[in-house]
Design goal:
Length: 472
């Protein structure tokens, strides 16, 4: 089976060109005109807001346009908006000319902006408005429902482009063409039934078609009804995980994963967390974990290489792989209580510390001219030892590197206070001698137990290099 054949159909049959999008003629026209105006250097509005029902082609249009014109997409979605700093980071990238990857033009995409109003961080809206004002690249906002009063300013800053709910005829047209590409036998009434249930959401219609095609090999009204009648589109994530575990056939487990919007890298956490609750037979458990670990390997390979063809293998492993591993029926169908993934909880809890570590790594990396991951693995652990054991020396390092208080506390929980105070004393000392900012100044070697009493020179607010050269 070829790789392409294993890709989920919503990826495989994504429109590659703008004219492959069905319907949405008005939206396509307005969007193309706007994009052209950008590249002729005269955008009327710097941003557009694409809005309309789910699965009607909003992201597809942007992606097709980017592909046609060789533009790079920089995308963010609702979960990124909780921190306005993340948006500012994008804003900085977007105001610069070329990118690290290439010198191609770019489109900045902010998906699910209607999610912003629900989050506590209203600073995010401010940051988005700022981004629109200062950007030197086209900005595309996407929302299902843009009419929240909180989004008024955003609406004013954007050209509004509406996507219509796709008609049953539109949906059927796409389904029919997929059936013919897949050489899948299908009955007209079966496609009508799928289209009817989809209520204009082409994504869910394509997913339904794939589930039926994969499960039964042909699409008849009977098979469609058998599969879809029981289907509840709003299955919650616990139900999805449960469905995966109790699936008897591979296709059932795969199909369950299409009933959630959760990305595979999230889904795997849910399965991982709850697997040992369901699969109590040790034989089942190791087999299932074997499958999960393979899924994990594929996922990290996708991240490393950008090879999305591996996605369907990862999904197969974490759904079908797990389902078929749990064989002991004493446990397989037993109802057990599931819980929220511990890793996600932990990530939320440690978010601040991780941010400090990230900033620290970046700061040191810029001094040492190496990568941040090298700093994290080879430098920070040693710094922690120094900071825990030699506050005096640590304070000098902190001063030389210009570390913030939270960075110092990150490096040493127990001695953080002492070091911060010591740094402050050094600063005062420098100020007292009135030499701050001048090429040389002195820091007293004030370690009481030290026999060394000579004073050494240091440029007070310079970087590590100077500090090491002159001070140590
Ligand atoms: N107008 C269309 N023409 C062709 N295919 C479409 C169209 N709209 C949606 N699709 C199909 O449905 C899938 C989902 O579409 P897309 O991601 O563009 O939806 P969306 O409008 O962004 O929805 P949401 O609001 O849920 O994010 C695509 O992979 C594509 O295959
Ligand atoms: Mg979308």
């Amino acid at each position: 089976m070829s790789l392409a054949k294993k890709l989920p159909w919503v990826f495989k049959y994504r429109p590659r060109r703008i004219d492959e999008l069905v319907n949405q003629e008005e939206a396509k026209r307005l969007f193309i005109e706007w994009l052209n105006s950008w590249f002729q250097g005269k955008p009327g509005k710097k941003a557009v807001l694409l809005y309309g029902p789910p699965g009607s082609g909003k992201n597809s249009l942007v992606e097709a346009a980017a592909k046609e014109r060789g533009l790079e997409l920089i995308e963010m979605n609702a979960s990124d908006y909780r921190r306005s700093t993340d948006i500012e980071r994008i804003a900085i990238v977007s105001s610069r000319g070329g990118s690290l990857k290439s010198d191609r033009g770019r489109i900045i995409v902010l998906d699910e902006v209607d999610g912003v109003s629900a989050t506590a961080d209203l600073g995010a809206l401010e940051s988005i408005l700022n981004l629109i004002e200062n950007t030197s690249h086209p900005v595309v906002l996407i929302a299902n429902d843009p009419w929240d009063p909180k989004l008024r300013e955003l609406r004013d800053a954007c050209m509004m482009i509406e996507f219509k709910r796709l008609t049953k005829t539109d949906v059927k047209k796409v389904l029919r063409s997929i059936c013919s590409s897949e050489r899948l036998e299908c009955e007209e009434e079966a496609l009508s039934y799928i289209a009817e249930k989809a209520e204009g959401d082409l994504r869910s219609a394509i997913n339904d078609l794939e589930a039926v095609g994969e499960g039964f090999g042909k699409v008849t009204l009977a098979t469609v009804k058998a599969l879809l009648r029981a289907r509840d589109r709003d299955l919650n994530i616990f139900d999805v995980v449960r469905k995966i575990m109790i699936s008897k056939y591979a296709w059932q487990a795969r199909e369950a994963s299409t009933q959630t919007d959760l990305a595979p890298d999230e889904l795997i956490k849910w399965v991982h967390e709850n697997l040992p609750r369901q699969a109590l037979d040790p034989d089942d458990l190791w087999r299932a974990y074997e499958a999960l670990s393979r899924a994990d390997v594929y996922l990290s390979r996708i991240i490393r290489t950008g090879n999305w063809d591996l996605l369907s293998y990862a999904v197969d492993m974490m759904t079908a792989g797990v389902a078929l591993s749990i064989k002991n029926e004493d446990y397989k169908y037993k109802w057990v209580k599931y819980s929220f993934p511990e890793t996600i909880r932990l990530m939320v809890k440690t978010r601040e510390a991780r941010q400090v570590r990230e900033d620290l790594a970046r700061l040191i990396a810029s001094h040492l001219k190496c990568s941040t991951s090298t700093v994290k693995s080879d430098v920070i652990p040693y710094l922690k030892v120094i900071f825990d054991n030699n506050p005096e020396y640590a304070a000098k390092l902190a001063l030389g590197l210009n570390l913030s208080e939270s960075m110092i506390r990150y490096l040493s929980e127990s001695k953080g206070d002492t070091i911060v105070r010591q740094v402050e004393r050094f600063r005062q000392e420098i100020r007292k001698t009135g030499t701050e900012g001048k090429p040389t100044s002195t820091i007293p070697e004030s370690r009481p137990s030290s026999k060394r009493t000579e004073k050494k020179e240091v440029k007070s607010s310079r970087g590590l290099e100077d500090f090491f050269k002159k001070q140590l």
